[in-house]
């Protein structure tokens, strides 16, 4: 039986996960070391939380968050401006047939965690959680 070139399972393949993690590490190192020729981007402290690679590995969605959560739009714009330089850095570190196109988005994970903590701190929710299940 021929294998479908697009992953049709419930989640990403092992290869997608591995490539995403390698890209995440590479980008985090490049941004931490200030290896980009853009002083505005080098002045920002940006956390690379996750990278999700498409099934064909041609697109990598990079989830980022500036330190402290401020300057979100400025960080995304600076990363987009330096996309080609960041792709070259990935290309030097990894041996892929194609270096994925990078798409930068804000990582909302921390915002969702804060909202969950706020909900769990509410009296009504705590009372429901502490109630005996019987």
UniProtKB/TrEMBL annotation:
It comes from the Bacteria. GO terms for cellular component: cytosol. PROSITE patterns: RBFA. GO terms for biological process: maturation of SSU-rRNA. Transmembrane segments: none annotated. It is found in: Cytoplasm. Keywords: Cytoplasm, Ribosome biogenesis. Pfam families: RBFA. Gene3D superfamilies: 3.30.300.20. One of its GO terms (molecular function) is ribosomal small subunit binding. The keyword Cytoplasm applies. Belongs to the RbfA family. Monomer. Binds 30S ribosomal subunits, but not 50S ribosomal subunits or 70S ribosomes. One of several proteins that assist in the late maturation steps of the functional core of the 30S ribosomal subunit. Associates with free 30S ribosomal subunits (but not with 30S subunits that are part of 70S ribosomes or polysomes). Required for efficient processing of 16S rRNA. May interact with the 5'-terminal helix region of 16S rRNA. HAMAP family: RbfA (MF_00003). This is Ribosome-binding factor A. It comes from Rhodophyticola porphyridii. The gene is rbfA.
């Amino acid at each position: 039986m021929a294998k479908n070139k697009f992953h049709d399972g419930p989640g990403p393949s092992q290869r997608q996960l591995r490539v995403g993690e390698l890209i995440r590490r590479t980008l985090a190192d490049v941004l931490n070391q200030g290896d980009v020729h853009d002083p505005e981007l080098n002045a920002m402290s940006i956390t690379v939380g996750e990278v999700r690679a498409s099934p064909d590995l041609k697109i990598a969605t990079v989830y980022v968050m500036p330190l402290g959560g401020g300057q979100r739009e400025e960080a995304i714009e600076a990363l987009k401006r330096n996309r080609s330089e960041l792709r070259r850095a990935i290309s030097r570190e990894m041996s892929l047939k194609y270096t994925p196109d990078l798409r930068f988005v804000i990582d909302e994970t921390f915002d969702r965690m804060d909202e969950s903590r706020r909900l769990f701190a509410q009296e009504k929710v705590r009372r429901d959680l502490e109630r005996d299940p019987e």
